[in-house]
Each structure stands twice: as C-alpha cells, then as structure tokens.
Amino acid sequence: MTYLLKMPVIAITDKSKGALRLLSDKENYKTFEIADNVGGRYSVLSPVGLVPIALAGVDIAELMKGAKLAANEVLSDKEDNAAVKYAAIRNILLDSGKPVEIMVAYEPGLQYFAEWWKQLYGESEGKGHKGLFPASVQFTTDLHSMGQYIQDGQRIMFETVLSVENSSEELLIPSDDQNFDKLNYLSGKSLHYVNSIAQIATAEAHFDGGVPVLRIEIPELNAYQIGYLIYMFEVACAISGYMLGVNPFDQPGVEAYKKNMFRMLGKE
After folding, report:
1. Which of 123, 125, 159, 234 is catalytic?
2. Which residues pair with 101 in a beta bridge?
3. Does residue 267 carry a catalytic annotation?
4. Measured between alpha carbons, how far is residue 129 from residues 86, 121, 236, 244, 253 in Å?
5. What span, in angstroms and rounded, lies between the C-alpha atoms of 123 and 94?
6. Is 223 in contact with 168 (CB distance < 8 Å)?
7. Residue of 6, 30, 144, 267 marked active site
8. Which of 4, 26, 130, 223 would bridge 62 by S-S if both were Cys, CB 3.0 to 4.6 A apart?
C-alpha cells in the first residue's frame, strides 16, 4: 500500500507579480514577500534569507540580535565604527595599487559566507571600470594553490582574514606510540589551535612577501556573530561604493549577458 504525504509548500515571492506569485495564489501556498526596495545581495536579513536559514536549523532570533547590535554601532557617528574603518582601509589600499581583495576563511563554516561576500562587493562596486576585485580562498586547503600566488605572484592584492578566536568544540590530536610520521609534537593540541597557528604563520609570511593583511576578529562562530558580520559588511559595502563614486545598489552590468541570451534563445 502506498501512502502519499502532502507536504506544505512555502514560497518566497514578490507581493503582486511574477510566475511564482501567480502559482502561489492558485495553489494557496504559504508565502513570504520580497521587499521591492531590497536587492538580492542585501536580502540575507529579509525573508529571502531568514526563511531558509531558519529551516536549516539556525537560530534566526540570535542572528537578528547580532544584526541589531551592528546597526546600533555602524549607523552611529562613533569614531570606532567598524563599517567605516573597513570601507576606508580597503579604499586606501586600492589607491595604493592593491585592486584585489582576498577574503580568507580558515573555518569551513565560513566558506559560503565568503561566497556571499564576493557577490555583495563585486555586484555593488564593479561599475564604470571601478572597484576592487573580490576573491576568496579557503585556508588551509588553498595554501598550496592560491597560497603560492599570494606569496610570490603580482603584488596587486591584500587579504582580509576572518579570524575565529574560540571554538565551540575541541578535537584533540592523539599521540602515536610508534610515531612513524614524526607528528607527535602535535599530540594533545586541538585542531582549532593548530589552525590558528597556521593562520598566524601564513599572515606573517604573506605580509613579509608584500601583501597587506587585514584581520577581522570573530569571538566565536555562531548565529549572533554572523548576524553582526552580515549587517556590518552590508553597510560597509554601501559606504565603500559611495567612496568609489558608484551606486552600490544597482547592477546594470549583469543585464548585458541576459539580453544576449534572450536574443540567442529567441525570446520575444
């Protein structure tokens, strides 16, 4: 005997137009609305991001608490404003001949955060032949590939390192009685500690090689801290775009390839 389980459908769609809106109205789906005045790359803290993040099991109340703290700090005129400092430093480095910014994540959990950051800054600033080129690497994985270029390639870049200070879990490296691999000097140390040493050693090597290193300290990798970072980076992106003299909220360039595709595929 076959049992059919009808699961509820949730749609995140426009308030009044679009194919998904029409389908949702027809099928009576539960919907969350996309705000007309929030661009996709800035929409993480709207239903566009919050609904799937909540369904993934993340505490979005904590996420929003972190974002609220960031809003209180970076929208103020305080001298110690993280968004203003970050925007100013990256523009100073651009003016000094460093047109490439590399976002460095050592924690696997930050890999896709860096992917979002690339879109945020690339789509917001890359206009009128202006803007820093945003790239990202996952260390220590990329240290033997991209790390080579960063160390000895063209001196056109700087690094922004997302540095997580404390780990919620400690995985200790065991000792091997026979010590064939000669790695017993690591025994008793945690993987987070070894990773942090790799971070310090790499930053020192790259800085000595002519690559400026900007470090953003994150006390712990949790929803609260990520919420803070999201809001801070969004505000910093807007400030940085205006420093460059571009509109950080439009994206005219991405329409060019779409027009070509529509023409080639025969769309009327």
Report:
1. 123
2. 134, 158
3. no
4. 22, 14, 20, 11, 11
5. 17
6. no
7. 144
8. 223
**Ranges of each domain in the chain:** 78-265
Token duo for residue 13: 């769609």
pLDDT by residue (tens digit) across 9-63? 889 998 888 899 999 999 999 999 988 888 889 999 999 999 999 999 999 999 9
Judged on CB neighbours under 10 Å (0-12, 13-18, 19+), 27 is exposed
How confident is the model over 150-166, as pLDDT tens digits? 999 999 999 999 999 98
* pLDDT on residue 73: 94
Q: Is 204 an annotated catalytic residue?
A: no
Strands 133-138 and 213-220, by their bridges, are unpaired
Q: Tell me whether residue 127 is one of the annotated catalytic residues.
A: no
Considering the candidates 15, 130, 189, 258, report the single residue annotated as catalytic.
Answer: 258
Q: How far apart are CA 233 and CA 241, in angstroms?
A: 12
Long-range contacts of 199-203 (CB under 8 A, 24+ apart): 199/106, 199/139, 199/161, 199/163, 202/139, 202/140, 202/143, 202/147, 203/159, 203/161
Q: How far is CA 45 from CA 54, 106, 160, 255, in A?
A: 11, 24, 23, 25
Residue 227: count of CB within 10 angstroms of its CB: 26
The CATH homologous superfamily to which domain 78-265 belongs is Glucose-6-phosphate isomerase like protein; domain 1 (3.40.50.10490)
What is residue 33's three-state secondary structure?
Answer: strand
